[in-house]
Amino acid sequence: MELIKELPDVFEEFAEQRQKSFLAIKELKDRGVPVVGTFCTYFPVEIAMAMGAATVSLCSTSDETIPAAEKDLPKNLCPLIKSSYGFAATKKCPFFYFSDLVVGETTCDGKKKMYEYLGQFKDVFTMELPNRQTKDGLTLWKNEIIRFKEYLEQKFHVAITEEQIRNAVKIQNEGRVALKRLYELMRLDPAPMTGQELFSVLYGSTFKPDRSKIPGEVNAIADRVEKEYAEGKMLEKKPRILVTGCPIGGATEKVIKAIEDNGGVVVTFENCGGAKSVDRLVEEDAEDIYEAIAKRYLSIGCSVMTPNPNRIELLGRLIDEYQVDGVVEMILQACHTYNVESLGIRRFVNDEKHKPYISVETDYSQADIGQLNTRIAAFIEML
Ligand code: BJ8
Questions:
Q1: Per its record, what are the GO molecular function terms (predicted)?
Q2: Nearest CA to ligand 1 atom 7
Q3: Can you give the CATH number for the domain in which 27 is found?
């Protein structure tokens, strides 16, 4: 029995979260709450939360502002970077507009160089992210987290206590546990919801300025999905797809749609916005809370790391746990790290997990939807 042809209200709520948060951010701003804008999963959100700041993902997923960005930046740059810069330059992102501070990390080359220019519109704090998950890398990253805390204290004239940080860790972990609970329902076969529905919650949650509301709201959705599943409301059996690669959201949701319009169901997202950003928790009782935070974030398996074993570890686990039939990798044009890493991912998926793999390279335009549909339909048909 099909549960969903159109998004039911509970998912729609989250799908509209980005728009709803425009007003929420303005209200917070009017009340004097500091707003910290972010672009990346490596951002240690707990530090900003500890001083009572609202944190929000900045706009970076639409082609609307790319022409403006291309006046300053090269055309053959990843669309995510151009879009981010374009939103800042055109003042079309309310979250950027209301941010007191933007935090960046030295991830890929294009992004870290773009942050240098963002400084003309806003205060930017760039954290030095090591490219290797080693002991020395951990020490550097822990020191960067402490440097960030001290910067916030100085800029906003506050003192951030360890107790406040531990409290933020707890809140953020509760949100992760709730999101995990929801996406783990996709282990059920047949799936209890579509990948598009699941994604609306995962993506919408990144725009929630009040992180403490996430556990309650997401658990309520999980309760409802579980209840409806028990009543027999579920999708029909379909090929089960894992999506990996560059972050998805906004314009690139066309890939999820293409998979589901052509007979598949996305049962798990390995990329940022999905399991990559939620899978691991910060150890709450650790003696050194800065080190615990540093460990948790540094272990994220992004392709900017070399080598990048944690991506393979997570990918393998998800393929098994979600009984995946095929893997679709979405790569943004000119994203060198994910593009180069795709060979290793293909080999792992084909040779070690014995599953079919396809990579699709795309940008933020809708011009390739026909081509995406053709390639993905052929892929799903052979599963
Ligand atoms: S932790 S995936 S959010 S860096 S797609 S800008 S890598 S050229 S977005 Fe990312 Fe953080 Fe990693 Fe996640 Fe560069 Fe590639 Fe563009 Fe990218």
A1: hydro-lyase activity; iron-sulfur cluster binding
A2: 108
A3: 3.40.50.11890
Give a yes or no: residue 128 inside a domain.
yes
Check if the beta carbon of residue 326 is closer than 8 Å to that of residue 241: yes
Query: If DSSP codes are grouped into helix, strand and coil, which group holds residue 63?
Result: helix
Q: If you measure from the C-alpha of residue 32 to the centroid of ligand 1, how many angstroms do you get, rounded to a whole number?
A: 31
Range of the domain at 130: 15-163
- 165 φ/ψ sector (left φ>0, alpha ψ -120 to 50, else beta): alpha
pLDDT of residue 10: 67
Helical pair 253-261 and 195-205, crossing angle rounded to 10 deg: 160
Q: How many domains does the chain have?
A: 1
The minimum-distance atom of ligand 1 relative to the CA of 335 is 8
For 248-260, how does the pLDDT look when each residue is reduced to its tens digit (9 = 90+)?
A: 999 999 999 999 9
Q: Kindly give the number of the ligand 1 atom that is closest to the alpha carbon of 79.
A: 16
As for the ipTM of the complex, it is: 0.97
Ligand 1 pocket test, pick from 304, 340, 359 with the greatest ligand atom count within 8 Å of Cβ, gives 304
State pLDDT tens for residues 122-134: 999 999 999 999 9
Q: Cβ(80) to ligand 1 under 6 A? A: yes
CA of 92 relative to ligand 1 center, distance in Å: 21
CB–CB of 263/239 below 8 Å?
A: yes
